Amino acid sequence: MIKGKVIKNYNGYYYIDLDLPESLVECRRRGKLKQKILVGDEVEITVLDNHTGVIEQLLPRRNEIRRPGLANIDQMVVIMAAQSPAPNRFLVDKMLMTCEYAGIHPHLCLNKCDLDRTIAVAYRDFYESCGYKTLIVSAQTGEGMDELLSLLPHKMTAFAGPSGVGKSSLLSRILGRNDLTIGCVSSKIQRGRHTTRHSEIMKLDYKTYVVDTPGFSSLEFEHLDPKELFCLFPDMIPYFGNCRFSSCLHRTEPDCSVTRAVAEGKIKKERYETYCKVLTTILERKR
Ligand SMILES: Nc1nc2c(ncn2[C@@H]2O[C@H](COP(=O)(O)OP(=O)(O)OP(=O)(O)O)[C@@H](O)[C@H]2O)c(=O)[nH]1
Ligand SMILES: [Zn+2]
Question: Which ligand 1 atom lies nearest to the CA of residue 111?
């Protein structure tokens, strides 16, 4: 059996990249294999002839997201625009939290810096000080593209962001700079707004993949235990654990190490506000 990666799932066929030259194999799955297979999954296959085969086994997943279904994402680039549409800190926070929840390492990318550099720099300074790598780019002028490209080798990188921020434009630039070794063309990412979108991984180079995540938005956090919410804010974690009450949710409780850190400016007020806002939603839904 040979190991490969599912890069596309279409009409019951799985397209497996074996990471060899010219090695895209069209596979069916073995009937007894009951688990759902996602794009991004690592599998073991039997090759039947030149380019067809059978998936025999699903290998363990490192992480997964549901909408769209994708597995084994090494990093997520959360894209916002510096302008049109205007960025929104609460939305950025929620997307970062969604990545943290899924166990995916996020970076932030401010596109359209040609339209408003001041906003882009303000976002970068803010999120870099929260510990997130933040890039300033322009798909239009090409500024910052080298730094973005330097993040990609030997990883599977997913791109997410609200509509209109320039995901397709950035991906086209990324793909245009590289030879695609398998039959995926960049026109595939220029689909219309209302067509059915399925995730398809595009291969840039050896072990280097990019994937758009249409429909990936922030998680609804209603199923999260209120006590776990804190773990989704890596910048706040160092101040956690010294509260008087072990049940502390860090709002109005006395002698709380988190609210103290906010008052001392060690935790950013805006991040703490996101925490409180999401916590309120979780608590209301639990009622
Ligand atoms: N000024 C400027 N415009 C840009 C830039 N990147 C993208 N745009 C424009 O922004 C608009 C939206 O870009 P898309 O690449 O379609 O955005 P998207 O995020 O893929 O949008 P959806 O397909 O709706 O998810 C287009 O008109 C692009 O030409 C940029 O860096 N600067
Ligand atoms: Zn507390």
Answer: 31
Among 112, 117, 169, 190, the mutation site with the greatest number of ligand 1 atoms within 8 A of its Cβ is: 169
115 lines ligand 1 (CB under 6 A): yes
Look up the CATH architecture of domain 64-212. 3-Layer(aba) Sandwich (3.40)
Dihedral of CA atoms 123, 126, 131, 133 in degrees, nearest 10, equals 20
Q: Which helix (H) or strand (E) holds 109?
A: strand 105-111
- Domain borders along the chain are 2-58, 64-212, 221-286
ipTM: 0.98
Architecture of domain 221-286: Orthogonal Bundle (1.10)
CATH number for the domain formed by residue range(s) 2-58: 2.40.50.140
pLDDT at 191 over 70: no
This prediction has a pTM of: 0.90
Is 167 near ligand 1, meaning CB less than 6 Å away?
yes
Find how far residue 137's CA is from the centre of its chain: 18
